């Protein structure tokens, strides 16, 4: 796996785990509120082939 692919996969996994944690009873939602944006911003460019060639995320805004 390429280094960028590994970083992308790891960050997406962490975001998913954080979302699961946020849904648990007794979760520290202040922690979730602080960490989730930082993780999202740290996402590298998606690896080539992650999205169809004709998709442009910038067009969705």
Brief write-up:
This protein is mainly α and 61 residues long. It contains 2 helices and no strands. Helix 1 packs antiparallel against helix 2.
Protein model, in words:
The chain is built from two helices and no strands. The protein has helices spanning 3-22, 29-41. Helix 1 (3-22) packs antiparallel against helix 2. The longest helix is centred in the N-terminal third of the chain and has 20 residues, at 3-22. It is elongated, with a radius of gyration of 14 Å. The model has no long low-confidence stretch (mean pLDDT 83).
Offer a few descriptive terms.
0% strand; elongated; mainly alpha; 54% helix; 61 residues
Shape: elongated
Largest sheet: none
Mean pLDDT: 83
Strand content: under 5%
Tell me how many strands there are.
0
Q: How helix-rich are the residues, as a percent range?
A: 40-55%
Note the topology.
Elements: H1 3-22, H2 29-41
Helix pairs in contact: 1-2
